[in-house]
Amino acid sequence: MMSNVTTIGLDIAKSVFQVHGVDAAGEVAVRRKLTRGRVLAFFKSLPRCLVGIEACSSSHYWARELIALGHNVRLLPAQYVKPYLKRQKNDAADAEAICEAVTRPTMRFVPVKSPEQQSVMMLHRVRLMLNRQRTQISNALRAHLSEFGIVAPIGRNGIEQLLVVINDETDARIPADARLLPANAGGTGPGRKGTNPRKRSPGPGECARDRAGS
């Protein structure tokens, strides 16, 4: 039966994967669970076949690994798989739906990304996260200091003014205990090396140039 498999739907997870495979006639040829460590060994034992995987976390990694074994791998957006779900959602039903959806002639697939492409995306996402965190910290500093009647103009210039107030131990408007939290949040304070709030986060291209020059 295993040698007759032509199409497989693979529902990936952190530990336990679900496989649903059919033959050329559409009859079920294999339906089983696999632990993470046995996935590659299982696909090594199969003839070249079409493998469908939902585009999600780690899907690009598994797609590259299975392509290296000679399989034809397609990543499917989750919203395009859902209409093919025939019964209550579970791993086995998801794998079956993926197996059917991947054979549709009008299905739209997600291109498999290389490690280099994913690295650039990771840099973009981390930079976006850091920018959001900087905004959150800035808003928190404004809110905390406003409780003591200390306000500043909107923008980075205003944050710089607030950090100057925080670092000024002679400013009696801020109690010593209240000074600790804003100082730590802002990355500044007595005995600490201050962080320039106007410093811009490097972009992914700049990071790549830094690596090339090192």
Using DSSP, what is the number of strands? 5
What gross morphology would you assign?
A: elongated
Determine the CATH superfamily of the largest domain: YqgF/RNase H-like domain
Summarize model confidence as the mean pLDDT. Answer: 86
Verbal overview:
The longest helix is centred in the middle third of the chain and has 32 residues. It contains 8 helices and 5 strands. Helices cover 45% and strands 14% of the residues. It is α/β, with parallel strands linked by helices. A hairpin with a 4-residue loop joins strand 1 and strand 2. Strands 3-2-1-4-5 form a 5-stranded mixed β-sheet. It has 2 domains: 100 residues, Nucleotidyltransferase, domain 5, CATH 3.30.420.140; 99 residues, no CATH class.
Which keywords apply here?
8 helices; Nucleotidyltransferase, domain 5; 14% strand; 214 residues; single chain; 2 domains
